[in-house]
Structures are given as structure tokens and as C-alpha cells.
Amino acid sequence: MGSEVFSARARASRPLADAFVDWFTEGSEVFSARARASRPLADAFVDWFTVGSEVFSARARASRPLADAFVDWFTVGSELCTLLPMRLRLPSSIASVFLVLGVGCGFDSTGAGDSSGEADTDGNGDGDGDPGDGDGDGDPGDGDGDSGDGDGDGDSGDGDGDGDSGDGDGDSGDGDGDTGDGDGESGDGDGDPDPCAGYSFHEIMLASDGQPALPMALYGNENSPPPGVWAQSEVDEEGTITWGFDVECPVEVVMWAVVWDQKPGFLPDDADSFWVRMDGEDPERKWVFGCQTENVDSGWSYQQVSHNAGENTCMLESVSWVLNPGVHILRVRNRESSTFQGAAGIARVLLTSNADYVPTIAND
Asked: Acidic residues compositional bias: what residue ranges (predicted)?
């Protein structure tokens, strides 16, 4: 009975130690019944068990596989199993029972660790050392920690999807779609086009496109020769006109405007200036365009926006704005009082990223 339990457990791939425990437990019950009917047999088993155990212990201490130790123990015990009944002249039937219980006579280690009828070279994934069988026994290709099998062993560049670099499994540098690997995404230096590379900005805004606030008002006619429509205020420090515009990429711009200066040049009692503000900046830029018109005939002309740091003199500073992508607000406010005819007027605004560009009214 014990051998049957042992065989069943082994076929189910239970560890050999567990199978032996089951065998020993159930076999012992039969042995106990038999031993009560024959004390000499019990003595024989004690000897058999003692000697076999010593061999088993010695083998185990030497780190021999459990199956080998068990076979040696069984073999030695089986020899005693055979000799002692002969010496005691036990009935052959009792000796046979003992042999059945021991399963030592004729025990063969072939196929240990396999299912029934399988030997150690069957290649069926039983942990017996067969290469490439996926049994986790340390050979290549079976997910047990060696290289090339996708088991997370950390080998770089082996294409096994185990998390190291160069194998297309999602980490950096292997062309799999993350940053810095030449896969076409933006900003990672991998040769993909920069949508803002070479970006330029050039936009003209007419007075008729702006929003005036009284006392700034619009005058003229769009169908008239340039400048067409313009904005002006005769009240000092009052009246504004505002434009909104949009840029797609970071850009630095300068500003030009078509302005009216009745008396060109920097002259007293001549309205020839505005306050200019971009995106609510504070303070505003004081633009005295009269400092720039002394060589211009009376009337309308394109002048570049600057800042005059002087009070009663021209101390001009160049002006530019660095703009981020998005919507921006430009506001121009009247600075000096004047008559209607002599008031400073503004007809159009040009914002450009080309600092060297010089527009004209006829071609801007």
C-alpha cells in the first residue's frame, strides 16, 4: 500500500520527500498490524530502518540528491529485509508482506523526478536538466535567468524585452517612441523638424482694425489714398487706440507706425508724440517721433517706435518686445494737446521680426 501511495504521489510531481512521508505513514499502519502478529518481524524492521536511516543521513549530509539517498537507504534496508526473515525462518508469506511494505527489493531509480515511465532525458519540462525545455533548471531559453529569453536578466541589447536598453521594449535610446531616440518627436535632438525653426512675424494693423477710446477717434475714409483712416486725439494724455494680435512661436519684434507730424522735427508746441504699451507693461514707452522726422516733409511717414529718455531733448533708445506664443495687446495713448489740424495722428502699425526691415507707405 505504501508503495502505491508513493508512486501516485510521484506521478503527480509531488516532491519526493512528500511522497515518502505519505508512503511511510500509510505503510506503517499495515506494518503495525503485521508486527503485532509477529514480533520477530518488527525486530527485523527496526534493524532495517536503523541501518537504512544511517545511510540516508550520510547521503543527505553529503548533499546528495534526496532520491539517491533514498535509493541507497532502500537498498541496504532491503538486504536486511531479505536476510533477517531467512534467519528467523519466517513464513514466506510474511516475508512477502515485508517486501511489499518496504518496496526495497528490486527498486530502480530510473525516471526519478519524472512522471511514470519518464527518464531524465525526456525533455518534458520536469526540472531534470534537459536544455531548452522551459523547466527552470538553469539551461538557456527556459526563463530561468540566463540571457536571451525575455526573463529580465538585464542583458543589454539582447532583444528579449526584459527592460534593458536597445531592444525596443520601451526604454530610452532604442527607437521605440520615447525621448531622445530619433523617433520623430519634438524637442529631443533626434533630427525631427522644429515647427518654430525659421519662424518670422510680419503683421500690419490699420487704424480701422483697432478699438479707439474717446477722446481718441477715427477719421478719414478707407477708400481715400493712404493713409485712408487714422486715429487722433486733441486732449493731452487722453484717448487710446488698441489692437489685438496673435503669434504662433516665440519671437522678438520691432514696431513701425504711419504717423502725422504737422511740423517735422523736435519743435516746441508741436504735437508729435505718443505713449506706447505692449501687454500692459509699466511704465509705458515715451515715443517722441518728432525726434525722427526732422528730415521728413510735412505729413504722413513711417517711423520706428523708440523710447525718449530725455525731457526736453531727444535721447532715443531702441525698443523691441520678446513675445511668447498667444494673443497680445498693443495700446497707443495720446500724449500732447493740439488743434485738430496739428494733432498727432496714427494710421497704421507694422510689427515685424525683421529688425532690418524699413517699410514705406507705398510698400509695407
From this structure: 117-193
Torsion of CA 243, 248, 250, 255, to 10 degrees: -30
DSSP-derived 3-state class of residue 211: strand
Would you say 324 and 222 are in contact if contact means Cβ atoms under 8 Å apart? Answer: no
What distance in Å separates the CA atoms of residue 74 and residue 79, rounded to the nearest whole number?
Answer: 9
Question: In whole angstroms, what is the distance from residue 201 CA to residue 254 CA?
Answer: 10
Which residues neighbour 148 within 8 Å (Cβ) at sequence distance 6 or greater?
140, 141, 155, 158, 159, 160
pLDDT value of residue 41: 56
Alpha helices in the chain (DSSP H): 2-11, 16-37, 39-61, 66-88, 92-102
- The band of 72, judged by pLDDT with boundaries at 50, 70 and 90, is low
CB-based burial label for 92 (10 Å; 0-12, 13-18, 19+): exposed
Determine the residue type at 153: D
What is the C-alpha separation between 361 and 364, in angstroms, rounded? 6
Give residue-wise pLDDT tens across range 10-23: 455 455 555 454 54
Cα 6 from Cα 19, distance rounded (Å): 5
Distance between CA atoms of residues 229 and 207, nearest Å? 6
Measured in residues, the chain has a length of 364
Residue 117: C-alpha distances to residues 23, 68, 122 (Å): 20, 18, 10
**CATH class of the domain defined by 202-352:** mainly beta
Domain boundaries, the chain: 2-102, 202-352
Least confident of 68-72, 89-93, 285-289, 347-351: 89-93
- The C-alpha cell at 89 is 525462518
The answer for 133, left when phi > 0, alpha when psi is -120 to 50, beta otherwise, is alpha
Spatial CA neighbour of 122 closest among 109, 133, 137: 133
